[in-house]
Structures are given as structure tokens and as C-alpha cells.
Target: Acyl-coenzyme A diphosphatase NUDT19
Amino acid sequence: MNTALRHWKEAATLILAAGHRLGADNLSRTPRVGGDASRFEYDVLLLKRSSKSGFMPNAHVFPGGMVDSSDFSSDWLDIFKPFASSPSFGLRRVKQPVETRAPIFATDRLKLGSPVPGEVALRICALRETFEESGVLLAVSKKEETRLLRSVEEDGCPAVRAAVRGGELAKWRALVNRDPSNFIRMCRELELLPNIWALHEWSNWLTPEGRPGRPRFDTAFFLCCLQETPSALQDAKEIVQFQWATPSEILQSYREQQLWIPPPQFYELSRLCRFPSLNDLHKFAYRRATEGCEQWMPVVVSEDDHYTSLMPGDKLYPLGSSGLSQAEDRQDDSGFHRIVFSDPYTPTLQISIKPKYNHLLPVVELAVSHTSKSHL
Model:
């Protein structure tokens, strides 16, 4: 982990999309409402943070959290031993030039004392935090190493399943919550490999400037598609509720003030609205992940009756604010890339730019059913 960072703490988040078939004890599926929501073949996992949380209390967020030193431990070299001879443990190479890569991905971790590449450690963090917060474990048995070695070399990774091991995992989840390094112990003793290959690089968000003393995070966002919805359970500490729902259902409930989601969640869910099909989303994410991604730090500008969150590419976005060079950060004088808030529940996307690295623009206007209400 990069302990030299002054303003941000490194973190990883997982956007988990899963087919509608439910796990046996998963009773938290919101009944699908009419209209646009019924088009979706999958749900997304959202977790409600505790009101006592020091960061975004009561917010509904994707699973994830802060990087731990154990995510960069050399002990992972033994867990991933069959993959150690492959660059980044068999992860596919990203085409984006290293000089334009976001620092969270481009930082040479070996110089910081870790033999574990950043792309691997960040995925381990996302998987560990998802397990801690929701009980969902994305892992494969070491008995499948031969098949896995072959599949990660092929062009076309299929949608994956979550590991299900009943009460055994409940014990380990408590241990991992107590000490993140127990995630390594669990994988060793249960002969599991964290499924880093199922996570596709998606985006990188930095917490904007806010009130002094508040934590700020440099967060790598990954996306994973599951064939069916796994069982989940909140950790009863930071997470007080979990919810599976379609992207459009979540956005509709947000606009109806039934829940609150932070701007990155709003933006990413609006992106997912481009893909009602789980298979199409998976294929796109798998293909696009090797292109790379931008580093985004919103710049918030307040006015009398609203405030605006500016992002790189907007004509008013300050040069150099994203942390990249001014040449890379330069925007068109007529470009819009912003979210305008008349209040915390009423965002409006204004976008006229072309996204970099073959990424998606969000759906600007969500078709909302006016004949029924969401029950999130």
C-alpha cells in the first residue's frame, strides 16, 4: 500500500451484478416494478452504511473499503504460486500507456516493498471487503487450477459463480472482520484462490475536497458479473442493510428519496442502464477492461440554488485537478461533463464529451414508471 499519500487513502470497490435467480436464503430482492426496470436481467448489490459510520453514514454504496497492508503481503505469492510466473498473476495486460495511468494503478509497488502488483492487491482488497461486508465470497478451489490457468489465457471469460460453503465461511468471515490478514489464512486453509480474474477494471474515483479532517479516498472500481444472485448478509457493524435491485430501480428509489447514493454510485448506475442484458454487460466489461480508465476527482462548485460536480473534460474543470498532466487533462472549450444538483436527491447529468478508453456514457434521462413505486 502507498503510505506516502498525503490526501487520500487507497481503496477498492466492487460493482457486483448478478442474474435474477436467487440463493436459497436470499429474501432481500425488491419486487420488480413496471416500466423500465422490468427490462433488466440482473440486479446490483447495494449496502447501506451505518448511521455511526465515519464516512458517508446512511449512504447506499457498492461493497468495498480501504486497502490493508495484508492485501500486498508476500504470502499471496504462495497462494497464487501457479500464476506467479505470469505478469500480474495472469491478469490481462492493459493497453493504456503507463504515463497516463491513474497513480493507483501505475504506482510501482515493488519500490514500496511489495512483490504483489497493484492490480492484484486492489482486486484482493475488493474481494476481501465484499466478503467482510456482505458474506459474498468470489473464489475458486485450488483443485481447479489447471482449468483456471487455461481459461485465463483464453479470450472470453464466462460469467462466474460465488463460492458457497455454508457455516464454514461464517466462521472465517468473523475472523477476517477482526483481522484482514485472516483472509490469507482462510484461502490457504480452505485451498481457495480469490477470483481476481473475474473482476474487470472499470473506473477510478477520488473523493473531492470537503470539510477538513474528513477522510478522502482514491478508489479503484471493478465490475463483476455473476450467473445468479448469491446469498448475502450484512456485517452488523458498518453495514446495516443489503439490497439487490436493478440499476433503474435503484435510481428511481433515489429520486423518490427512499435512499441516498453518492455521486459515483449515481454515475456508475446510470452507465449500467446502457446494458439491460447481463451477458452484454459482461462482454462489454471484459472487452473494455484492457483499455484502461481515467482518474476522476470531481470539483464541487456551489451556487445560490444548486451545486455542480465538475469532472474531467468539462470546460470549467480546473486544469491539473485530476492529478494528471495538464496536456492529458486539457478539455474542449465547449465540453460538458458535470452533475448538477438542485438538492441531494435531484441530480441532472450534463454530458457532451466522448468518453476515453472505449468507456460508456451514462444514460442522461432515466425512464421512470409513474404508475408504481419502488419498494427499496
In short: The chain has two domains: 9-294, 297-355. The longest helix spans residues 118-134. The chain has a mean pLDDT of 84.
